[in-house]
Design goal:
The chain is α/β, with parallel strands linked by helices. The chain has 24 helices and 14 strands. Helix content is 57%, strand content 10%.
Length: 698
């Protein structure tokens, strides 16, 4: 029986990751009497060739080290089902019966290393020299920064990705530059690059922390290399234990193909190496603090708040507010103000041109055009929020925008552009209406929830269809949802005008829904109905789902980085379907709000929606796809729509379509926010990718 190993990149004696895997296999094959072959990959293009060489050499078990080999293993393993594979640092998706995926909680190991650094530093400046920016290394870096700040809020963390695991000279120069900037603890997380960094830093007198395995024995040769007394510890990933166990299980016929193994603090898959010569620097207080951090990470009462792709996770609403970039809020407010100013200019110029065309002198043109602007905006204000009735009307108008905006935002969080909210809204309204007028004799506490459930289910199914098509066939959701909008609208149009039409009505509409299927009025004189509360509750529920549940976390991870999600064992296809179904469900509830909540409706009419689904896209963009931003964005949209009628009444010389111009300008300024930053001399935003949708074929 023969075992083989292929490195992603770098040498077998790199002193960290590759060497640890190599040593674990050696222990197993020596005891079990197996043959062993390894190949050090020099170029990524050689990955597949190296695997095929080991297969040719009759290796029954092949272990690959590094995420770069993962995709190649997915392909080769399907073609060679008789060969068993172990992928270290990569999760094969979908799972294969002959592949065991081994991954580690690098964020926990990095957190412990950061906590150690935060306790030891005197300058309150520490540094991370990282290798390539692949998910495991990013998790090490982010976990280290979190851990350092957890025990020492004053600490400043310097970090840099070298984008190589095999460049010790570059690692050395980065580490020394950090020391020049005041760092007195250096963490090297990047193979030979990181080892070069900590060796140089240790020789320069800084404290250092290694990675992957105990670098006291590798990089510092058991204390024989200068600077070894400056090695505090190493953030260990027990790759050796994982691969040794995999080899033993394979020989014993217990190979765990088709599954994943996560090394964490709970199963001793990660941890800190002994302090060795640095024992004197680790006081009893520091040891107690590290033990407390380790215990809390192990039992889950302390979270690293670092996701599979290395993304940051907020722990509480307060923390989210505390770290919110308030300049972004300023941009949003200024975008609205600027759009209103440009709208005023359009009104003034248009009216002035009309008056000048009739021969009016400028002495009359200027005050008349200005008065028109004031009348128009006065009417817009009064109609939107100028009275209790206006506020109530804007709130009612905002309700379907809230649900449509949440639907689009949830899709965006998964990297999907659900442009089919309009159709899902139609199908939700149709299903709720049918249940509302066809089912009779039920009390409101049964009939109303039944109608709501029918609307939610109708929208969910209509949303899940394009999600399933994308997951199964790769068909882009934008094309599918656009087409399904037409199907939904035309289907509702036909049904309302034919089989479902109320024959006693003069308009094309269904029969009125039963009183037991209507949302109760909260303030009857203002027509405020309880669907408003449903929409507000939906905001909180969607926020909780996205940021406090495992399913929500997986959806956001897929949206941030599908490859990293697959690496972490998350099913991208399943989350596509789930996100689209939930998005459709929210849209469906937005549709039934119109037919079950508004006293002026209580029935389904042909073309009942005034573009709620499409405006939901704008609402989601205005809210930056965050549930907590949906209400103010939706209320702005509802208030503009609600006030547009009175605006035209007060200023009859202008078109009601001016509101569309203002809304379009708001979206333009938000989408191209650098315009606002340039106009108002705001600091340019930091380069940070925000994923709304990954685009065609993504």
């Amino acid at each position: 029986m023969r075992v083989g190993l292929v490195t992603d990149v770098g040498r077998i004696d790199d002193g960290t990751f590759n060497q640890y895997a190599h040593e674990g296999i050696q222990r197993a094959v020596a005891e079990l009497g197996l043959e062993y072959t390894y190949i050090e990959t020099r170029r990524p293009e050689d990955h597949e060739v190296n695997l095929l060489i080991l297969i040719e050499e009759q290796c029954g078990l092949i272990i690959t080290v590094g995420s770069g080999l993962g995709k190649v293993v997915e392909r080769v393993a399907k073609e060679h089902p008789h060969v068993a594979f172990v992928t270290v640092d990569f999760v094969v998706q979908p799972s294969l019966p002959n592949v065991l995926s081994v991954v580690f909680a690098e964020d926990q190991a990095g957190f412990l290393a950061g906590a150690l650094a935060g306790c030891v530093t005197k300058s309150n400046v520490v540094g991370v020299v990282a290798g390539e920016s692949v998910p495991p290394v990013v998790r090490f870096r982010k976990g280290f920064a979190r851990g350092a700040r957890y025990v020492n809020p004053k600490v400043r963390v310097l970090s840099e990705h070298v984008e190589s695991f095999d460049d010790p000279d570059k690692g050395r120069s980065v580490a020394l530059s950090f020391i020049e900037r005041g760092a007195d603890v250096i963490f090297g997380a990047g193979g030979r690059t990181g080892s070069g960094a900590i060796r140089a830093a240790a020789e320069a007198g800084a404290w250092v922390i290694g990675v992957d395995q105990d670098e006291w024995f590798t990089t510092f040769a058991g204390g024989r290399v200068p600077g070894s007394d400056r090695l505090l510890s190493s953030a260990v990933k027990r790759v050796d234990v994982a691969v040794e166990r995999a080899v033993r299980d394979w020989v014993a016929g217990r190979f765990g193909g088709g599954s994943n193994w996560l090394g964490s603090l709970r199963n001793d898959g990660i941890g800190l190496a002994p302090f060795h010569a640095a024992e004197r620097a680790i006081s009893p207080e520091i040891r107690a603090r590290l033990n407390e951090v380790s215990r809390r990470l192990r039992d889950g009462t302390l979270q690293t708040r670092v996701g599979p792709a290395g993304e940051d996770q907020m722990e509480t609403l307060w923390e989210w507010l505390r770290v919110w970039n308030w300049s972004e809020l300023a941009v949003l407010v200024l975008a609205v103000i600027t759009a209103l100013l440009i709208g005023a200019i359009v009104i003034w110029v248009t009216r002035a041109a009309d008056l000048r065309g009739t021969g009016q002198p400028w002495e009359q043109v200027i005050p008349e055009a200005s008065a028109l602007v004031l009348s128009a905006y006065g009417g817009l204000y009064e109609g939107a929020i100028g009275s209790a009735r206006a506020l109530a009307g804007s709130l009612i108008y905002s309700t379907p925008y809230i649900m449509a905006g949440l639907a689009v935002a949830l899709g965006f969080q998964c990297g999907l552009f659900n442009i089919g909210v309009e159709g899902q809204l139609y199908m939700g309204a149709l299903c709720a209406t049918i249940v509302g007028f066809s089912v009779t004799g039920l009390p409101i506490y049964i009939h109303l929830p039944l109608a709501v459930a029918a609307g939610a289910l109708g929208g969910a199914i209509w949303g899940a269809i394009p999600g399933a098509l994308k997951a199964i066939t790769g068909a882009h959701e934008v094309i599918n949802t656009i087409m399904m909008n037409y199907i939904a609208v035309k289907t509702v149009d036909y049904l309302v005008k034919n089989p479902l039409k109320d024959v006693t009505a003069t308009l094309d509409r269904t029969p009125f829904v039963a009183e037991s299927a209507r949302f109760p009025l909260l303030v009857p004189e203002l027509n405020i109905h309880s669907a408003v509360l449903v929409a507000l509750a939906a905001i909180g529920l969607v926020w909780y789902f996205l940021f406090k549940t495992t399913w929500g976390f997986e959806i956001r991870t897929v949206g941030a980085n599908p490859s990293a999600a697959r690496y972490a064992g998350i099913s991208v296809k399943r989350n596509f379907v789930l996100a689209m179904a939930l998005s459709g469900m929210l849209a469906g509830i937005g549709g039934l709000d119109v037919v079950l909540g508004r006293p002026s409706e209580y029935a389904l009419k042909a073309a009942f929606s005034t573009g709620f689904g499409f405006d939901g896209i704008a609402v989601a963009m205005l809210a930056k796809s965050h549930p907590l931003g949906i209400f103010p964005a939706a209320f702005l949209w509802g208030a503009l729509r609600n006030g547009a009628g009175l605006m035209q009444v007060r200023a009859q010389a202008i078109s009601i379509d001016l509101v569309n111009i203002i809304q379009g300008l708001v979206i333009m300024f938000i989408a191209a926010d650098q315009i606002i930053r340039w106009l108002y001399r705001l600091r340019a935003r930091e380069e940070k990718e925000v994923v709304f949708t990954r685009g065609w074929g993504g």
